[in-house]
Design a protein that fits this description.
There is one protein chain. The chain is an alpha+beta fold. It has one domain. It has four helices and eight strands. Strand 5 and strand 6 form a beta hairpin. The protein is elongated and about 40 Å long. The N and C termini lie close together (5 Å). The relative contact order is 0.18.
Amino acid sequence: MCRIFLHVAAPAFRTRPCAYLFPLQALKSKPPALRLDLAQLAMKQYVIDELRLDDHHKIRKYLEETYGPAELGDIYWVPLAAEVLTEMQLEHSECQPFYFAIQLEENRLSIEMLVRTKNRIRCTCIGYASKNQRIWIMDMVDGILEKLAIAT
């Protein structure tokens, strides 16, 4: 069975970076005062680890058939649905379409929560996924796992 985590990396005492893996249920169940302010952290990922080798092959086949071959080694670019774009992203028609990245390793699936475009490196419309986008991304990835009958 796979484990699902939200991976965040943040500066530790401003001298060296450190990363933390938080089980999603633990984050959702903590009292509000103990929850992390994820907006202040440097990197956000939705991570599913402990994939079995056949699960890896099923996911790779699905991603390649649905989104095309990985462009950078094991990274797939998945387009974000138009209905979850922010107001700024909708206004920036020259930057569309918007994507998020899925990295498929042999025993791990990492989804970066950064919404970006292939048309520009920097723009005000590029940034971490909004709450609606995070929900959409996580639901979409969970749907893929369900469709492929991968236990999490």
